[in-house]
Amino acid sequence: MPTDFLFDGPEDARVTLLLAHGAGAPMDSAAMTATAKALAGAGFRVARFEFGYMAARRTGTRKPPPRAETVMPEFVAAIDDLGPTNGPLIIGGKSMGGRVASMVADAEFAAGRIAGLLCLGYPFHPPGRPQQLRTAHLIKLKTPTLICQGTRDEFGDRTEVGEYGLNDEIELFWLEDGDHDLKPRKAISGFAAAQHLAAVAGKVREWVGRVAA
After folding, report:
1. Alpha carbon distance 163, 10 (integer Å)
2. Is the pTM of this model over 0.70?
3. What are the residue boundaries of the structural domains of the chain, listed by start?
4. Lowest-pLDDT choice from 56-70, 81-95, 172-186
5. Tens of pLDDT along 185-205?
6. Could you give the CA distance from residue 125 to residue 139 in angstroms, rounded to a whole number?
7. Taking a C-beta distance cutoff of 8 angstroms, is the pair 181, 31 a contact?
């Protein structure tokens, strides 16, 4: 079945970002939509898509999130279905979407099909279970990678992630007081969610300028 996409940003943008959703929310969730709009505003063409289990929920079939390994072929199919782009393609996504992208990234990078990986709130471990790490493949990742992470993300905060020994190809961009959706508590941090998204968009533009010149 062909992949359905949501597009934001200019059709003739030089760089396209292909993003998948998190485990529990669809591609048009408030967080995904706000992020896509911010990235589109930075000049990127943003394509969002859903894994089959999430798309099935739109027709009333309630399915739990599958193991990330089982939907890796769906991400590769989305790259296929997106087809040729005007320039470099960056893959990634929110939480589980970014994790799945990270699991297919090296093969796609080696094949010359992508230029990099963008993870928005990477789920380094399940909340409350820091011993169940999802980092083994990140230690040897060869794809240029940007992970945007909130400093109080319950899936991996700044202190925890600093101890993981991630590959040098991975660049971390920390959002002060951000949660798993990168949202800060304004009363505590002094930052607003829109400010963090603008910072993410600016960082992605700067990073892409280096890895996909």
Report:
1. 39
2. yes
3. 5-211
4. 56-70
5. 988 889 999 999 999 999 999
6. 15
7. yes
